[in-house]
Please model this.
Amino acid sequence: MEINPIVIFFAAIFTNNMILANFLGMCSFIAVSSDIKTSFSLGQAVTFVLTFTTLINFIVYRYVLLPLNLEYMRFIVFIIVIAAFVQLVEMIIDRYFQTLYYALGIFLPLITVNCAILGVSLFMVIREYSLIQSVAFGVGSGLGWMLAIVAMAGIRQKIKNNPFPKGLEGPGITLIITGLMALAFIGFSGIVQIQ
Model:
């Protein structure tokens, strides 16, 4: 039975969220999630990159690697596609959106090594999604990642001035909040789930 792309889209946002269900893309999630505006901008960049690299990787995998029996090369090829696309996005943001470029700083090139982006391409292959399903999964995963990082930034700004034990400051409390957010998102699993 083929899963409807709309179901895949919403599942990728809520029940199969790359951060909260698979814990992929945590490095930039923890580092950048202290400011809502920066988190939203990075979330938009990740969504944009996820959407187009999923599409490109689908085409490359289905129409180049499979016909040539080179599917074992998918990791290397997917990483090359992601790196090239992120480099292109970085050059465009540097050229036309200087403030955003400086706000994102080192984390913009780190989108290349964001394991959520590679994870989406690999899940797309493992689950044997069609082109429409893959794009829905890529867009939904990006929006889910953005939702999680913006929510985390909002929570971190709200609790910034609250006293915490020394051991929980910074990444400690961020990981605890991430775990609580993941538990909250599990509540959506009865609505829609993809495997």
